[in-house]
Amino acid sequence: MKAFILDRYGKGAALRLGDAPEPRLRDDDILVEVHAAALNLLDSKIRNGEFKPILPYRPPFILGHDVAGKVVRVGVKVRGFKPGDEIYARPRDGQIGTFAEFIAIHQADAALKPRNLSMEEAASIPLVGLTAWQVLVERAKLQKGQKVLIHAGSGGVGAFAIQLAKHLGASVATTTSTVNVGLVKGLGADVVVDYKKDDFEKVLSGYDVVLNSLDGQTLEKSLDVLKPGGQLISISGPPDPRYAKEAGLNGVLQLVMGFLSRGIRKKAKARRASYAFLFMRADGQQLSQITALIEAGVIRPVVDRIFPFQALNDAMVHVESGRAKGKVVLKVK
Predict the structure, then answer these.
(1) How far apart, in Å, do the first and last CA atoms of the chain sit?
(2) Which residues lie closer than 8 Å to 224 by C-beta, 6 or more apart?
(3) What is the pLDDT, as a whole number, of residue 197?
(4) Measuring CA to CA, which residue among 119, 50, 86, 171 is closest to residue 301?
(5) Which of 53, 185, 230, 252 is an S-S bond match for 226, by CB 3.0 to 4.6 Å?
(6) Is 1 helix (H, G, I), strand (E, B) or coil?
(7) Are strands 29-39 and 327-331 parallel, antiparallel or unpaired?
(8) DSSP E strands: which ranges in the chain?
(9) 74-to-84, 118, 191 alpha-carbon distances in Å
(10) How far, CA to CA in Å, does 49 sit from each of 41, 42, 56, 254?
(11) What domains, with CATH codes, occur in the chain?
(12) For residue 70, what are the β-bridge partners?
């Protein structure tokens, strides 16, 4: 099969389009013909070597964390899927590789594709949808009437999280640039802070939850908008000891991550708030719940551009530019 292969770690390194063996199908796996795959900043960070301590992939390997496609074969223990099913998924860590013509996915990581979405639209959902779900529903337990600040509302996670938070009954504020104000308002944001004109920490206050996906400076400023008891949850770091323990990392890495997050945890505690880092995990059951919301019209995909499969490296450059509104997708088949 054709696949984009990472031969060596390196910032800005191009992936090589080449031949790779068809994935080995284990008993609990489904073999999926990839129709579309979405790109994420996570792909760039792994390529750059930023996640080697916690995701030690050995080059050469195939990148890619979002997929929509058709099941062509199933393992002997698979019960929820059959050949011909259209699915979408965020394959679990250690089993990634959606930038290819085929991928083997554990059955627990996949869900039936929303009937009202194209393959390209469906591929845009899994990673950002699961991230937003695990931050807002699972970790923050966001309730009706609460206030949440979602940074970077026009990005992939932000665009999904705004819609999910509104569905949960929260009042939503977001940050974005001038050109994207209309987009985030259309997604349901109640308060929009144009970061080119205003400082969000000076105009917002009394928030229950902040979802941060930006840099360390934004992370610290976000503490200023939280009320006592508020939660600051970051998907861009720094990792904290709870994450290290849940991820099963060794004692040395647990100590390192405790050190890296000590400053922000201490500042959060001084404000009677809490800090947590979240690195999303694959979960087909949660993805099925997301499917129901999409089919009900509660959440819609936001796709910036669709690139042909052969233009993967151009698509990665576009994602890294930070100018994408929503997700960037590859049309594989």
Answers:
(1) 12
(2) 201, 205
(3) 95
(4) 119
(5) 230
(6) coil
(7) antiparallel
(8) 2-6, 16-19, 29-39, 61-62, 67-74, 86-89, 102-106, 110-112, 147-150, 171-176, 191-194, 207-212, 226-234, 274-277, 303-308, 327-331
(9) 10, 23, 47
(10) 13, 11, 9, 19
(11) 2-125+301-331 (3.90.180.10), 127-277 (3.40.50.720)
(12) 33, 86
**Residues near 305 by Cβ (< 8 Å), separated by ≥ 6?**
315, 318, 324, 328, 329
DSSP one-letter code for 42: H
Asked whether the beta carbons of 142 and 162 are under 8 A apart, the reply is no
| Paired tokens of 12 | 């800005």
Q: In the prediction, which pLDDT does 247 show?
A: 86
| pLDDT score of 54 | 84
- Residues forming beta bridges with residue 71, ordered by sequence position: 32
147 touches 208 (CB < 8 A): yes
Separation CA 71–CA 59 (nearest Å)? 27
Instruction: Walk along the chain (333 residues) and give the pLDDT tens digit of each residue.
Output: 999 999 999 998 999 999 999 999 999 999 999 999 999 999 999 999 999 888 889 999 999 999 999 999 999 999 999 999 999 999 999 999 999 999 999 999 999 999 999 999 999 999 999 999 999 999 999 999 999 999 999 999 999 999 999 999 999 999 999 999 999 999 999 999 999 999 999 999 999 999 999 999 999 999 999 999 999 999 998 999 999 888 888 888 889 889 989 999 999 999 999 999 999 999 999 999 999 999 999 999 999 999 999 999 999 999 999 889 999 999 999
Residue 208 has phi, psi (to 5 degrees) of -85, -35
CA–CA gap between residue 1 and residue 72 (Å, rounded): 14
Q: Are 308 and 136 in contact (CB under 8 A)?
A: no
User: In the structure, how many helices (H) and strands (E) does the chain have?
Assistant: 11, 16
Report the C-alpha gap between 244 and 54 in whole angstroms. Answer: 9
Q: CA-to-CA distance for 131 and 201, rounded, in angstroms?
A: 24
